[in-house]
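Hi R.,

Here are the chain sequences for the assembly we discussed:
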Amino acid sequence: MASAFSQAALFEAEAEKASARRHRLLSLPALIIIGIFGVLPLLIIVIYSFLAAAPYGGVQWQFSTDAYLNFLFQRDIFDDTLQFTPDFLIIYLRSFVFAVVTTVICLLLGFPTAYFMATRPPAQRNWWVLLITIPFWSNLLVRTLAIMFIIRDEGLINNALMALGVIEKPITMLYTNFAIQLGLLYSFLPFMVLPLYSSLEKLDFRLVEAAYDLYATRRQVLWRVIIPLSLPGIIAGCLLVFIPALGAYVTPLILGGGIHLMIGDLIAQQFGSGRNWPLGCAQALILMAAVLVALYFYVRNTSGKMRHG
Amino acid sequence: MPDHPGKSAIEVRGVRKVFGTGDAQVAALDTVSVSIRENEFFTLLGPSGCGKTTLLRLIAGFDFPSEGEILLYGQDIAPLPPFKRPVNTVFQSYALFPHMTVAENIGFGLEMLGKPKAEIKARVAEMLKLVKMEALSARRTSQISGGQQQRVALARALAPQPKVLLLDEPLSALDYKLRKEMQIELKRLQHQTGITFIFVTHDQEEALTMSDRIAVMSAGKILQVGTPWDIYDKPAERFVADFIGETNFLTAAITDIGNGKARATLKSGATIDATVAEGFQPKDNATVVVRPEHAKLTSGKGDLSGTIENIVYFGTDTHIHVQLDSGEAFTVRQQNTRSAGCGFERGDKVGVSIGNDAAQVLRD
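And here is the predicted structure of the full complex:
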């Protein structure tokens, strides 16, 4: 009897191992893709960031921490001393401000939109989701160029305002910080609305009724019930907007006209006209590290709030 | 406890509620008027879709009437939002806040009213004690059982001391035994707090055992309002008689109407006394109802005669289904004893005698 039992247990353990093997096999294609296109390039970037720049682009196989030093300091041409130059840091800080402002405004615009969508009759909701995704149907570059045509000096807005006699001279909007900000907002708003919607759609609106019933005003219901319960969607939306906004490349390039740089443009420059690949790699890695640190504090802070209401 | 003895706490006057527009319009409530007394356990009873929950939602303020007034101690509250009404609700789904603890849930209403922290704390403690949940005050609502959630929902709604407590089928999610316990618990809480309870249910037994008065609803209308005894023994309409308990319907010729009484001549030729609802003038032909437990089977001649079709044993009693010679069906409920069977067998020719004051003339 005992041996029969242990035999059965052995078979079971075997079967479990086999099923575990099968499950690992299932993840193999994804792992291969991540390995080739994710881990490998990252490794190359890390290695390149510690090499010296070749004069006409590319790298020289020679260990160097110049790329990281160059991020904050400039080597004096004459006496070879390091001098603090905050130029890159300022671009990083500006990008950070752009990304934060984009995230906050997207949240302020996206939350009411998502709430509106989530409170439509179920049959209508999918149509609203479809409408929100319309921008994805065309290329981001084309859409950004369209913004250019709307806000440039002879663009739609200026022409309309001048025709109406509101202004005499066109307001310069293109190639300003305002243009970059507008472009970022436009590009990333759907990424805020969709996770917020999926979170609010799951919200039990009987809880909202219960709060109203217990003397909560509309504002109190929002702060005490709706927002805490849709926090997962708020976190997801903020991450999906903040991270890509921080590294945005096309939008600031076109709408900022290459004058007001953001991190993405700065990094791209190192591989183009800057001809300093190690510096570009270092800048990319510093951005990654900054995002990781910011994420850590953000998630720790918000999930703590979720737990304690 | 009642400050205005005998006064009505809630007065619903000519309330209509229409959902939808144009051709798709549906009247969920069709000109309903009812007065609910202070400190009363009042039940809205009816099948699903009869409008009972709609009426409750109008009183709570989640919906607004298309027509009519709802008075709370004489003041029209129909246009007020829920947070301006001193009325609280216990929801069918409990609707406890999942991101708050038991104590935070109970204190929520007081907090929203801007009460001082010390007062909230004391009141929450009092409420926890009232519903016997002191030990679990720091738990999340997802970490307690259905019956405990029910208690928290009650405590949360009672904590702000509402003038009226609304209960929307609060016991329907509980299993039979727990439901029985909570029925008693609810009655105790109502006595202890002295708050007017308006209770919605589709369970006739629950309504009969708990209520001071019941309003039976169907298709957006209130058909009859009365004590459980009134509703059960003197149903005014076929729907009420049929919905509550089991009953027998007999066609009869009505004569000698007066003083709430009449003589009913049944198809068998026998004539019995029957009661008539106040203010109702029956036609010559009407339906009378007799409850199964108010009739007796005899082996000799009774008011009715027929053949036993089926005998069903129920433990406490036995239901004997008789096919009457007139073609109508009639059920008699007979109390069981330990010593013997019911004394009849299928196919027996029997008489049915109807007790004094057992028949009621229906309005239909």
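Residues 32 and 38 of chain A are 9 Å apart (CA to CA). Chain A has two domains: 2-84, 87-308.

Let me know if anything looks off.

Best,
T.
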